From TrEMBL:
PROSITE patterns: PROKAR_LIPOPROTEIN (PS51257). This is META domain-containing protein. InterPro entries: DUF306_Meta_HslJ (IPR005184), HslJ-like_sf (IPR038670). The keyword Cytoplasm does not apply. Residues 53-128 form the DUF306 domain.
Length: 136
């Protein structure tokens, strides 16, 4: 059986097309899975305050891992670190004004974001309060 010149060209073109298709199929990006998009990283940075207009209790986290808080009586300063969507707070200094009202900010050791609120807890995991992201 003898293959004509025209047949050899056709076979060569088919082999070349298959080889080219195989080469380019390795250059395609991986398929993006359907369903849930990747979650945006949680950011504690910014000012958080009570939901009422007084904003009496508030805390502000900066990009350097420092925070300052005010509970309506005393000002608290410290640092924070984030791990597994939780912030651990370490107080370094505070004013010591004698306060007649219940102040709870000094008891906070942990924080996490739940929806649009910042939930503040003590070392036992007891919720002490909620603050909300401030626009200003």
């Amino acid at each position: 059986m003898r293959i004509s010149r025209r047949g050899r060209i056709s076979v060569a073109m088919i082999v070349g097309a298959v080889f080219g298709a195989l080469m380019f199929s390795g250059c395609t990006p991986d398929a993006v899975p359907d369903g849930t998009p990747s979650a945006a990283p949680i950011s504690f940075t910014g000012q958080w305050k009570t939901s009422d207009d007084t904003g009496e209790t508030r805390i502000a986290f900066d990009e350097n891992g420092d925070f300052v808080g005010f509970d309506g009586c005393n000002t608290w300063n410290g640092s924070f670190s984030v791990s597994d969507a939780n912030a651990t707070l370490s107080f370094t200094s505070a004013t010591e004004v004698a306060c007649s009202k219940d102040v709870w900010l000094e008891k906070v050791t942990m924080a996490h974001i739940e929806g649009d609120s910042l939930v503040l807890t003590d070392s036992a995991g007891t919720q002490l309060g909620k603050l909300y992201k401030s626009e200003s």
